[in-house]
Amino acid sequence: MNNFHIQQITEELGLTIPKVQAVAELFEQGSTIPFIARYRKEVTGSLDEVIITAIRDRLNQLSELDSRRESILKSLEQNGHLTDELKTQVEDAPTLSVLEDIYLPYKPKRRTKGIIAREKGLEPLALLILEQKKIDPYKEALSFIDHEKGVESVDDALSGSRDIIAEIINEDQQTRTILRDLFFNKGIIKSKVATDKETEGAKYRDYFDWEESVSSVPSHRLLAMRRGEKEDILNLTISPSEDEAIEILEKLFVKGEGEDSKQVATAIKDCYKRLLSRSMETEVRLLSKEKADTEAIRVFSENMRQLLLAAPMGAKRVMAIDPGFRTGCKVACMDRQGKLIQYDTIFPNTSERKTAEATEKIKSLCAKYKIEAIAVGNGTAGRETETFINNIPELKNIQVTLVNESGASIYSASEVAREEFPDLDLTVRGAVSIGRRLMDPLAELVKIDPKSIGVGQYQHDVDQTALKNSLDDVVMSCVNGVGVDLNRASSQLLQYVSGIGPRLAKNIVVHRDNNGPFTSRKKLKDITGLGPKAFEQSAGFLRISNADNPLDTSSVHPESYHIVNAMVEDLVCSVEDIMKSPDLRNKIDISKYVTGSIGIPTLNDICEELAKPGRDPREEFEEFSFASGIEKISNLRQGMKLPGIVTNITKFGVFVDIGVHQDGLVHISQMADRFVKDPADIVKVHQKIQVTVLDIDTERNRISLSMKAGPKTDDSEKKSGKTIQKRKTPPKKREEPKAFNNPFAEAFKKL
Known about the structure:
- Helices cover 48% and strands 11% of the residues.
- The strands form 4 sheets. A 5-stranded mixed β-sheet has the order 6-5-4-7-8, with helices on both faces.
């Protein structure tokens, strides 16, 4: 552990040294973020996952900085440049930019104009001119003419000297720091359409002639312009005022008005245009991209969290339908554990005869398997199939729900699906996924690459490693926050449990298949490869229904069982009694059970868990239906008020499914009657809301919506027979650690 890193992180995040040090030590011991946040509150001072993640990420960044520092010191030593002073500068460099600036003059490089001029012996002349002691540079240059070295004239000597001066200025650490700040604070990003690309790049037409400050450009606009550049549609430049940049350089290096100072001024202009401006633009491009990536990844990760934590319907006997027209609808019937028990194909959307046959088949399957709920995919023919099901009188008591099937096709073709259903058609696998997604979104969505679920913006343009790491953090946080049923979970779900991973997850499933369901958490120790550390990290997040020990159904960690046993012994009752009786729990004086390792925070958690053992923290499932008769864009009219479900949140607005196979956009300006800075402050993914249709562009398949206040119901809502529950308060915004005309048409183009 590096104490300097601990000190630096403490100052950056506004924490205390003991807290940061404790987290760092726990990471070194192999602890995960969910475990630290849930079961080591006394050690960390109850830091939450957001802050713990920030500490981990900063530790990694500082470690990478140290690795680069070591590499540079090694290079300097090998090339004979290392001095005590230079070593101190390298060791004290606080950031990568400063470190690279220090290294730049000594960095091995290709033969530049300055190097060639030095080879011709012109460095003494360059340094003499740079001193600006009112010499006559033309007179001094005469003695540097050397035909053998290629210096044929005074102009050659002065030109070479200026090349050397330009490189000296370019490699000056203070100069680069000042110019870097100028580019970041006053740089303008300019976007122009490439020659003859107007038609091909029509979707980027907002950026055919666009200017914006690089310091304030929103992430989605920067990523859109960069994508246009990558596709050779746009040409981008980033720079401040050239006159201002050169004026700054002249103030730094020009010391007078003599001929030697004029030579320096000429070298400055060449340095800026040929070296510094290009170098700084490259840096700003990289760092602005990192900033945009960070914001896009944050938005995607938060959307993903909300989607994963969507309310589950729970264990029901479900019929799932993957809808279609020509190829028919694939039907899959599943038991309450999500196991496929029968599948079939119906054609309800082709002819009257086929519809009648489909009706009888659905009625028969529902009766045979005592179906409690029907899940219909919301893709092609989804609304039509939903209407078909709702028109069967015998099914009026069975709940019918349209399920977002984004990513279901990805799952169908995945190795996971092939392993489970090697003999089934892709569409049947998709139907199974749709049904399971209704029962438990979290358990099913972990099987799919998060990027395929479609709840982000420009997710394919951001740093893919950073995106994967962030999404893995989110999935792990959600899985462990909810808890996992050890006897029902798939290996894909189990691998996200703290301390488990893919290999142990498969071993658990194999052991379960060979030996039957687990009856206690202790049995985990029988798993091949699952040692004491993995048990410590995972046990508290795994649940066992009807376990021998009732505490195994809760999030109370086995390391704390002795505390609960002491409580029940003092109360002269059983664990079951204390879980059932509020009166008994009210008699507990938790201060009596404080130990050296278990304090009040953990004891409070234990008491809360005893009151609601194994409680699912997700919201209760609510029935929802789209407006009846509104199934296509052509059914829409301006002013209609419709129920909808938020499918995606971006920085410029939210997309809402209103049941017409094309999401509509609520631009940020139409989200409330007040100013909205961030759409995520108003809604969350999968939230049910009420919207008003503002505009329909059938030619481009675009719908503009509004969430602004208006009548709560209209004829279309009455037709649906459902009441949309408004969110009484906006969702709580996750705490972030300290860091580092028609609006709709424009917003659509930027997605």
